[in-house]
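Example 9 (inverse folding). The structure is encoded as follows.
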């Protein structure tokens, strides 16, 4: 299966890439450089989140029909507001494939989740599986747990900033 990745100026066929290296783009940013077997530069990729070469080039296999992820995000009305039940949003999203890395398989979603969102896998029996967190009996339990952890982090930030109560 041919894999393409979007680069700074277009698309690169990973089947034509012999080496991937890093170089400084600016004082604060690196970029990946893709070269063919002759050492000719094919293209570069410079956005900050793309610098994990293993992640970028890992094989992807198709997901089974009906595979579903649950993406949970917590969006308080105000940046400084303590998250509540009403701030928790959950969306079921089809899994289109699985990226296979040294750490295991991770779902490939049509629209990738943001760093602040949690991706969980929904089993046919309704259980919700978390990467490194265990299994929840259902979606409500998963949402409660994620909200509690987010509230704990919020409270820790308040204490560190001097706004917390005793």
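The amino acid assigned to each position is listed next.
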């Amino acid at each position: 299966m041919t894999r393409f990745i979007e680069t700074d100026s277009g698309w690169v066929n990973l089947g034509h890439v012999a080496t991937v290296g890093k170089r400084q783009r600016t004082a604060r940013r690196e970029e990946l450089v893709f070269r063919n077997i002759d050492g000719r530069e094919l293209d570069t990729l410079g956005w900050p989140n793309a610098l994990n070469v293993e992640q970028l080039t890992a094989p992807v296999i198709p997901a089974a029909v009906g595979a579903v992820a649950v993406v949970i995000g917590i969006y308080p009305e105000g940046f400084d507001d303590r998250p509540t039940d009403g701030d928790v949003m959950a969306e079921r999203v089809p899994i289109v494939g699985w990226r296979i890395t040294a750490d295991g398989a991770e779902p490939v979603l049509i629209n990738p989740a943001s760093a602040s969102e949690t991706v969980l896998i929904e089993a046919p029996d309704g259980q919700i599986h978390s990467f490194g967190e265990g299994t929840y009996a259902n979606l409500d339990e998963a949402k409660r747990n994620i909200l509690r952890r987010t509230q704990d982090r919020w409270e820790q930030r308040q204490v560190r900033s001097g706004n917390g109560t005793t």
